[in-house]
Design a protein that fits this description.
The complex is a heterodimer of chains A (116) and B (115). With 116 residues, chain A is an all-beta fold. Chain A contains no helices and 10 strands. Chain B starts with a strand and ends with a strand. The chains are: A mainly beta (116), B mainly beta (115). At the A-B interface, β4 and β9 of A face β4, β5 and β9 of B.
Chain lengths: 116, 115
């Protein structure tokens, strides 16, 4: 289903720690997932994506894990920095294959605060 | 990389007036654009899908007569909030589907305040 009007959960970490942000997605038919970072007053910024035929994908300091059995997605940020402070959203897409992209549905989001 | 320009970034209008927000794909053609609405400390809610040359597809609960969408070219979609009221105050964000590596590029958003 669609994201509802809930207030975002928060995660506070110390600089240098690893952060794990979780997301439960709703549609078992979704075949493409994206993590976005949104800073205050700005649009979402792409971080990393993963297709449903994978369970793990790594980028620079970030790792996304996908558990389709329980419809769970996580974003791991290594050595978190103050500049990582933002809101993080997962998004799911159905029918993302080929040239036919489906619409992007956003999850609830998490506010990450990194303390120096 | 693909860039989406959204204007204005901020707008304050009086209750009852209309406001137009523009979303432009600067270096690619976008046959499909999406309009989202975001309240403070909440997620992005899809309002409508804008298709070039055809009518927009609105999500359930979104008033098509209040939120007019026009996608007259492959690089421009506009959202007009008609007869705006204070409850329409929100952050509006557009996204274009194009040749970007991940297929979706977002504008920087428009903060609408209706007084």
């Amino acid at each position: 289903g669609e994201s509802v009007g809930l207030h975002l959960p928060t995660l506070s970490v110390q600089e240098g720690d690893n952060s794990i942000i979780n997301c439960a997605y709703s549609n078992s038919a979704s075949d493409y997932f994206i993590w976005y970072k949104q800073e205050s007053g700005k649009g979402p910024q792409f971080i990393i994506d993963i297709r449903s035929n994978m369970d793990k994908r790594q980028g620079q300091r970030v790792t996304v894990l996908l558990n389709k059995t329980v419809k769970h997605l996580s974003l791991q940020i290594a050595a978190t920095q103050p500049g990582d402070s933002a809101v993080y959203f997962c998004a799911e897409i159905t029918n993302a294959g080929g040239t036919s992209y489906g619409k992007l549905t956003f999850g609830q989001g998490t506010i990450l605060t990194v303390h120096p | 990389g693909a860039v989406v320009s959204q204007h204005p970034s901020r707008v304050i209008c009086k209750s009852g007036t209309s406001v137009k927000i523009e979303c432009r794909s600067l270096d690619f053609q976008a046959t499909t654009m999406f309009w989202y609405r975001q309240f403070p400390k909440q997620s992005l809610m899809l309002m409508a899908t804008s298709n070039e040359g055809s009518k927009a597809t609105y999500e359930q609960g979104v008033e098509k007569d209040k939120f007019l969408i026009n996608h007259a070219s492959l690089t421009l979609s506009t959202l007009t909030v008609t007869s705006a009221h204070p409850e329409d105050s929100s952050f509006y964000i557009c996204s274009a589907r194009g040749p970007a590596p991940r297929g979706y590029t977002f504008g920087s958003g428009t903060r609408l305040t209706v007084v």
